[in-house]
Specification:
Elements (H helix, E strand, L loop, with lengths): L2 H8 L1 H11 L15 H12 L3 H7 L3
Length: about 60
């Protein structure tokens, strides 16, 4: 399991709340992150939010 996977899984409820507070345009469907597809999920967030993966990771403290 990668460090990214560990952090996403371990803090998932906190991360979801933080994302919803900051980015009201995110839906519950946007916040579904399947195991093993964390990078793909970050790419989807990147497109929806117009942010870089690095900006999203920094926001989430990953």
């Amino acid at each position: 399991m990668s460090e990214l996977q560990d952090k996403i899984q371990g803090n998932w409820n906190i991360l979801k709340g933080k994302l919803k507070q900051e980015f009201a345009e995110l839906t519950d469907d946007d916040l579904i992150c399947e195991e093993g597809k964390e990078e793909e999920w970050l790419g989807k967030l990147q497109l929806k939010l117009g942010k870089t993966k690095e900006e999203i990771k920094k926001f989430l403290n990953l």
